[in-house]
Amino acid sequence: MCDYCKEILGSCTSSHDSNKCPLKRASFCLNCQNYGHVDSECVELEDYLELEQLIPSKLLIECGIKTHTPVVKSSTVGVYEKKEAPEFIEELIPEFYLKKYKISSRTPLIAVKKLYEPLPMKPVIDILDNPKVIRDYLKACNSMPKKQDRSKDKYKVHLNKIASKAGYAVEYIPISEPEQNRIV
Fold first, then answer.
1. In this structure, are 104 and 83 located in the same domain?
2. pTM of the model
3. Total number of domains constituting the chain
4. Domain residues for 74?
């Protein structure tokens, strides 16, 4: 029985030689791009290992980490407190990797600040800036202005009123003069 399969699959495997283990041959290393082992068993990994390779990709994106920091090994493993707002890159690395590679460095985490704070999203009604189009939209919504209102922009004013009541914003799309003549 192969020790590699036995460790992963238990008794659910057929007897075979460890050199011809199908599970081991199917394993793929993301670091050296070869089959036969996984990235945690990679021998070549230690030659070009970077701290950022040990951090889960979700945390790399959230913290905006785009650096390439080489691992500095020492005889002792550093102690890192898991905080809500980490100060060092090493605080984001799982403890397993800290012990395996004997990481004791303290690399400051330079978080990328968001360039802008997104505004709360509000649903928008995009509509052509043409009274006939606005009138047709209001008819489809079954909400026409009163007949006493005879102003030029009565459809726009009414659309703005019903949109603000529903919590929508209205964006009028300007159209050129030749296109306005084509709208019937």
1. yes
2. 0.37
3. 3
4. 49-118
Is residue 113 located within the same domain as residue 131?
A: no
Q: Quick one: 72 and 113 in the same domain?
A: yes
Q: Are residues 88 and 110 in the same domain?
A: yes
3-state secondary structure of 100: helix
Please indicate, yes or no, whether residues 89 and 110 belong to a single structural domain of this protein. Answer: yes
Residue 128: its H or E element: strand 124-128
Euclidean distance between CA atoms 172 and 178, whole angstroms: 18
Could you tell me which of 41, 45, 46, 47 has the C-alpha nearest to residue 23? 41
The pLDDT profile of the chain, 184 residues, written as one tens digit per residue, is 677 777 777 777 777 877 778 878 888 876 677 888 777 677 765 666 777 777 777 777 777 777 777 777 776 676 766 666 777 888 888 887 888 778 888 888 775 444 334 556 778 888 998 888 999 999 998 988 888 877 888 899 999 999 999 888 898 888 876 666 666 5
